[in-house]
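[09:14] KT: can someone run the structure on this one? pasting the chain below
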Amino acid sequence: MQYQDYENWTARATRWITGYFETLREKPVRAQTKPGEIAARLPVAPPEQPVDMETIFADFESIVPDGLTHWQHPRFFAYFPANAAPASMVAEQLANAIAAQCMLWQTSPAATEIETVMIDWLRQAMGLPEGFKGVIQDSASSATLAAVLTMREKTLDFSGNTTGLAGRGSLRIYASAQVHSSIDKACWVAGIGQDNLVKIETDANFAMKPEALQAAINADRAAGHTPAGIIFCTGGTAIGASDDLPPLIKIAKAEGVYTHLDAAWAGSAMICPELRHIWEGAQDCDSIVFNPHKWLGAQFDCSVQFLRDPSDQLRTMGIRPSYLETQGQEDVINLNEWTVPLGRRFRALKLWFLIRAYGLAGLRTRIRNHIKWAGELEGKLAAHPDFTITSGLRFSLFSFQYTPQGADPERKTEELLKRVNDDGRIYLTQTHHAGKFVIRFQAGQFDCTRDDVMLAYEVICELAR
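[09:31] RB: done, C-alpha cells below
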C-alpha cells in the first residue's frame, strides 16, 4: 500500500466504522467465540509476498468483528468502560498519521505544550487547586507504579536508583483491600514486595479505618520497618468504595509519608461539583490518577496523573543523557522524565478535541445521567423479591445477587451471570464482596441511554426465570 492509496482506504475504513456504530446495538456485547477459533482462521506462517489491501480488508471484515467483545456497545455494563467518543477517534486518526515521538519538547513542541495545557484544563474542571501539575500516562497502572517508585526513592533519600535495595530493610506501603490489583503489581515491580503491602481494615462503608492505619504504622516502626507511602482509593473497582481522605491524610502528614490517590474510574465524575465531597481532601494528596479513557470519553490509552509537587517524581524518574538534551533550552519540560517509558504518543490531542467538542457541560450531563439511570435500575432490582442488593449505588456502580427463596444464592447468581453473558444483549461481570459471589453493574458507556439501562432489568429478570 502506498501513500497515494491512503485516502481511498481510510474512506473505506470510515464507511465501515460508521456502519459498525449504526448496527452495534444489534450485536451481542460479548464475543461469542471459543478459545482458539480466531487463531485457527489465520495462516500459520507470514506471507513472503505482499497481499493486496482488498483481501486484507475482506479478511478483517470476516474474522475480526465477530471475534470481539464490543467495548463501545451501549449495553456494555461490565468492568469499567473504555470509551471512544467520536471526537476522540478523529484526534487519534490524526495523531496516528503524524506519528510523532513526543518524548522531548524539541521532538514535538505542540504535543508537550498542549499536554501541559490539557492537564491544567482538567485540574480546573475537577476543582483541584492551582499548583498541581501533571502528565498523561498510558494507564493508571503506570501512574501508580510511578507513585510507588517515588515513595521508595523519597524514603531512601533518593539513593535506591543508585545503590539498589539490598540491606535497606523493609519499606512498607499501606492501602485497603478495596484498591485495584495494580497497586499489588506496582509493589512487585518496585522491589518492595507483596509482603510489604499492608492491607488495612475497612469500616462498614468499606473505607480505610484511620485507627487501623495508625496502628499498622506504629507496629511497623516498632518492628524496624520503614513506612514509605499510603495509597487511597476513590471509586474502587469491586464495589466503588471510597476512602474518607482527611483523617488518613492527617496521619500521612504526621508520619511524613508520600500519598497517592487511585481515582482511575471515579475521578472523571469530579467534573461534577456536587460529587466532589466524596474525595474531599484530594487536594492534599501528593499524587492522583484518573483515567479520561474510562468515563470521560477519551480513547484508550489516556491516564492523567496529577502531582502536587512534581519535583519528587522528576528526581525519581528523570534521566537526561546528552543525546536527549535540548541545546539552549535546558529549562523546557521533557515529559519522558516524568514517566517510566521514554517514548510517548501524542495523547493530549484527543483530550483537546474531546473537551472542546462536548464541553464540560455535555460531559457532566452524561455522567449525571449514568448515575441516575443506574440508581433507577438498582431501585427496580431492590424491589424485586428474587434479588438482593449486596452493595448500594456508588457513583454508577452497584452489585447484587439472585436470591430466590429456597435456593443457593451463590450457585443461582453464577448461573444467572453465565446465562446473561451467553445471551449477549447485555454484558455484566462479577466480583467477590463480603465473602459472596456477586454481579456488578455499572453504567458509563459514552452512548448509553436510559432505554439501554432499563433493558438490563428486563434481560436479568427474563433469564432469571
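[09:33] KT: thanks! The first strand starts at residue 133 and ends at 137.
[09:34] RB: yep, looked fine to me
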